[in-house]
Amino acid sequence: MTERGSAAFQEGIQQLRLTLNEEQYAQMLYYQQALLEWNTRFNLTAITDAEEVLLKHFLDSLSLLRVYDHPQCHLLDIGTGAGFPGLVLKIVRPDWHVTLLEATGKKVTFLQHVIDTLGLAHVVALHGRAEEFAHKQMYRGHFDLVTARAVASLASLLEYGAPYCRVGGLLIFPKKGDLAEELAQGRRAAGQVGAMLLADDTVTLPGLADGRRLLVWQQQKPCPTQFPRSGAMMAKKPLGSG
Ligand code: SAH
Predict the structure, then answer these.
(1) Residue 2 lies in a domain
(2) Are 61 and 90 within 8 A, CB to CB?
(3) Residue 92 pLDDT greater than 70, yes or no
């Protein structure tokens, strides 16, 4: 480890054609250490190895920039956990307005700690559930980009995410493994929430050669107001099933 992280991390940053300045590297390394330290007291992530945090959390989060990279963006990260991918993207794209939404209070406390310590502006950590915040008028159709990593099936993610996305905006969901059935269901769900599959992008980066993909959807029209349904309804009758 150096003050720019490991060799594999730097190689990945280069492959993504990103340029990080010294402050951004320092912010990443602070975040990495805070995560490892807080994780000994609270269960924030299953990953406890410093190098794996760099590759499987940070680099993986940054892979979204392969398919979406604009100078300005209002980003929503649903079920961000300890900040993946949203808080990592915020460090590398400081001009973005980032909203991190997370149901578990102690994770929100961690996010706020990192945000405050790094002095990041235009980033908020909200404590709550996606299916509830989505019915607040101020968030409806508000975001250019909606993401969620390791939170739910594609059909559920589309039901959570589409209401937040502006028409013409994107929803990007990182996934791995065999998705045939999940994707078929996701496509049916997308039709119901006004979204459409745009791209299915394979991600290969150092330490991440395990079938990672980015599923990219575009919001075609405003999501009908009945979505998202309650968590109980979503579990009982998943969108696009059958
Ligand atoms: N995105 C992070 C965390 C994944 S774990 C990562 O990739 O590392 C899934 C997280 O989603 C958990 O922290 C859980 O509390 C949160 N979550 C699950 N359902 C949610 C919902 N409906 N609304 C908000 N957060 C949710």
Answers:
(1) no
(2) no
(3) yes
Dist. CA 95–CA 142, nearest whole Å = 17
Distance CA 188, CA 92 (A): 34
User: Model confidence over 199-217: pLDDT tens digits?
Assistant: 999 998 888 888 899 999 9
Q: Of ligand 1's atoms, which has the minimum distance to the CA of residue 45?
A: 8
Whole-number Å distance, alpha carbon 148 to ligand 1 midpoint, is: 8
Q: Tokens representing 161?
A: 């995410």
Residue nearest to atom 13 of ligand 1 (CA): 81
Average pLDDT over residues 42-54: 92
State the CATH number of the domain containing residue 34. 3.40.50.150
Whether 73 and 101 have beta carbons less than 8 Å apart is answered as no
Q: Which domain holds residue 101?
A: 7-236
Q: Quote the pLDDT of residue 3.
A: 81
Does 92 fall in a domain?
A: yes
Angle at 36 between CA 213 and CA 214, to 5 degrees: 10
Which atom of ligand 1 lies nearest, measured to the CA of 133?
23
Tell me what pLDDT residue 1 has.
59
Predicted TM-score (pTM) of the model is: 0.97
Tell me the C-alpha to C-alpha distance, in Å, between residue 120 and each of 23, 76, 116.
12, 16, 7
